[in-house]
């Protein structure tokens, strides 16, 4: 497990993945900046800082940070209210400082209170949105900006009406390029390619983009009717060297330091960006094949430092983002090196080869995002959650629908309400085992919060630890359980006793399973027993 997290021991996985993330991040950085009413370069700066600075400081192995579509409405309103982009940058700086102190005071713990059914629903919803939003771009209809995740668009159209409009105004050359790219990406997932000694190290998305550039070059030479206009290509401001690039930075307006509105915007940015980052981190950890957990308070501190620097250099506010993180994971990344290299690629290519970047067809990039979306929302995911029962499926599917028809934060809030409903229901059912609502200690009617607090008992004797799961154990107890597991020293013996637990949430089971999987690397002997009187799992690792 520990060797897996070594950045220099997984180059064969991380370097190809970094190219894929770069290709996904480039149009999103540009599109989000354009939609926010900020300088185009602001999105690139945020992407570079998110990759290099936050990627280096973060404890996450797989998440990728950059400008977030979820903050666009806040950015637009803030620039308008503050009167200038320079004043807004000051708010971004102060928001980053506040975010850092949120991490210092351990506010990141809130990230452990999102049920996995809601997090998985968020991932599936993002995948569905990616597919629906990229269909117009794949057809050559590029009216909406890249990276839009909202149902109602800025131009008054919605996700579905945009597809209808695109179907009536297709660009043949774009369709040829996107279909070719999709075929390449499908072929690159086949075992024959993955086992090839040479081809397995070349990312499929890179081949898809190169073929897209070649096809459009041929169209320009031999078929004007198929050639793509500049509006269907990446559009990036050209710079000739690093000094010219730095000269384009926009600095904060420090004369606005006494404006109280600056601090209102800073607080809003800090809270919303922190919440989006924690959600994305939880989602990335769910997708990690090695089941590693990210230290959430360290993540907030890293995000805070990144946002402070981004505001100082003219960049947009940054969060950990799901689309880039999932693309990173699907591309086979194993450590944070892929994130750092993707930021380095953004910096170097913008300075060295902007002309080449401006030749990339948006339809080729749309194909990459379409395939990323499919992997996040494949039919098997819905089938698996349906089989888990209504207490898992309903929060999952309601989160998917709520995000699809509103936006990320509203959808998560709706999913959380549904998840909490099932926690309350399980507690009410558990209370019926005591007459007149009196608990086993005679303490009067049951309290959900008291049960949450007393759901886990930890005991220690020398090198031996005992964790007892009492009564009902829900996802609300996951944070305490995680912290407990992290504090158990190497070489210990642990018994997890669930004899008295009448209800164990799926999130708790997953947390226990993940710990048991990781226990051998820490030389911890784990025995789990007594779920309804039976020995459930014994995992001796000594």
Describe how the helices and strands are arranged.
Blueprint: H1 11-36, H2 40-57, E1 64-67, H3 72-82, H4 85-104, H5 116-138, H6 159-167, H7 172-188, H8 191-194, H9 204-222, H10 242-247, H11 260-287, H12 296-313, E2 318-321, H13 322-330, H14 337-352, H15 354-357, H16 362-376, H17 379-387, H18 390-405, H19 408-431, H20 448-453, E3 456-461, E4 464-469, E5 471-473, H21 478-487, E6 493-497, E7 501-504, H22 506-518, E8 525-529, E9 537-539
Parallel strand pairs: 4-6, 5-7, 6-8
Antiparallel strand pairs: 1-2, 3-4, 8-9
Helix pairs in contact: 1-2, 1-3, 1-13, 1-14, 2-12, 2-14, 3-11, 4-11, 4-12, 5-6, 5-11, 5-16, 5-18, 5-19, 7-9, 7-16, 9-16, 11-12, 11-13, 13-16, 17-18, 18-19, 21-22
Organism: Pseudochryseolinea flava
Domain SLC26A/SulP transporter: 11-380
Transmembrane segments: 20-49, 61-79, 85-105, 117-135, 170-189, 201-219, 305-325, 345-372, 393-424
**Category from helices, strands and their pairing:** alpha/beta
Unreliable residue runs? 430-450, 532-537
Gyration radius from CA atoms, angstroms: 25 Å
β-strand number: 9
Percentage of residues in DSSP E strands: 5-15%
> Averaging pLDDT over every residue, what do you get?
89
Helix content: 55-70%
* N-C termini distance: 16 Å
Approximate shape: globular
**Domain count:** 3
Number of DSSP helices? 22
Main β-sheet description: 5 strands, mixed
> How do the strands of the widest beta sheet line up side by side?
3-4-6-8-9
Keywords: Membrane, Transmembrane, Transmembrane helix
Pfam family, one: Sulfate_transp
Membrane topology: Multi-pass membrane protein
Subcellular location: Membrane
């Amino acid at each position: 497990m520990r060797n897996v997290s070594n950045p220099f021991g997984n180059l064969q996985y991380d370097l190809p993945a970094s190219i894929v993330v770069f290709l996904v991040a480039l149009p999103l950085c540009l599109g989000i900046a354009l939609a926010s009413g900020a300088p185009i370069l602001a999105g690139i700066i945020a992407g570079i800082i998110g990759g290099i600075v936050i990627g280096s400081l973060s404890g996450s192995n797989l998440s990728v940070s950059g400008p977030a579509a979820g903050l666009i409405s806040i950015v637009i309103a803030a620039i308008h209210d503050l009167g200038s982009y320079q004043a807004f940058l000051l708010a971004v700086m102060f928001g980053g400082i506040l975010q850092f102190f949120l991490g210092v005071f351990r506010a990141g713990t809130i990230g452990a209170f999102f049920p996995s059914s809601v997090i998985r629903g968020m991932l599936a919803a993002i995948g569905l949105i990616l597919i629906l939003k990229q269909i117009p771009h794949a057809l050559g209809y590029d009216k909406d900006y890249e990276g839009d995740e909202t149902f109602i668009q800025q131009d008054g159209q919605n996700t579905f009406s945009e597809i209808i409009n695109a179907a009536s105004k297709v660009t043949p050359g774009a369709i040829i390029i996107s279909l070719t790219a999709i075929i390449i990406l499908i072929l690159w997932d086949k075992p024959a390619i993955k086992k090839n000694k040479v081809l397995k190290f070349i990312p499929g998305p890179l081949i898809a983009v190169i073929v897209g550039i070649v096809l459009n070059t041929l169209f320009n030479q031999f078929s004007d009717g198929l050639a793509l206009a500049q509006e269907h290509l990446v559009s990036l401001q050209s710079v000739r060297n690093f000094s010219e690039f730095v000269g384009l930075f926009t600095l904060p307006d420090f004369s606005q330091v006494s404006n109280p509105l600056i601090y209102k915007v800073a607080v809003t940015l800090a809270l919303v960006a922190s919440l989006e980052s924690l959600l994305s981190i939880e989602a990335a950890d769910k997708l990690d094949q090695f089941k590693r957990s990210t230290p959430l308070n360290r993540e907030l501190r890293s995000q805070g430092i990144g946002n402070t620097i981004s505001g100082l250099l003219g960049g947009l506010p940054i969060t950990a983002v799901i689309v880039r993180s999932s693309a990173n994971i699907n591309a086979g990344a194993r450590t944070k090196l892929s994130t750092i290299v993707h930021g380095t690629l953004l910096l170097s290519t913008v300075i060295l080869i902007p002309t080449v970047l401006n030749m990339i067809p948006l339809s080729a990039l749309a194909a990459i995002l379409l395939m990323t979306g499919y992997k996040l929302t494949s039919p098997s995911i819905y089938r698996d959650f349906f089989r888990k029962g209504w207490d898992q499926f309903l929060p999952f599917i309601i989160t998917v629908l709520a995000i699809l028809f509103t936006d990320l934060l509203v959808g998560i809030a709706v999913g959380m309400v549904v998840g909490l409903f099932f926690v309350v229901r399980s507690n009410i059912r558990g209370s019926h085992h005591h007459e007149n609502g009196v608990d086993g200690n005679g303490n009067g009617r049951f309290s959900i919060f008291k049960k949450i607090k007393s759901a886990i008992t930890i005991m220690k004797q020398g090198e031996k630890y005992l964790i007892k799961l009492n009564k009902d154990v829900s996802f609300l107890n996951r944070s305490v359980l995680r912290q407990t597991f992290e504090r158990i020293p190497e070489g210990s013996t642990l018994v997890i006793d669930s004899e008295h637990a009448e209800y164990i949430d799926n999130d708790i089971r997953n947390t226990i399973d993940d710990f048991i999987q990781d226990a051998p690397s820490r030389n911890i002997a784990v025995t789990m027993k007594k779920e309804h009187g039976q020995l459930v799992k014994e995992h001796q690792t000594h």
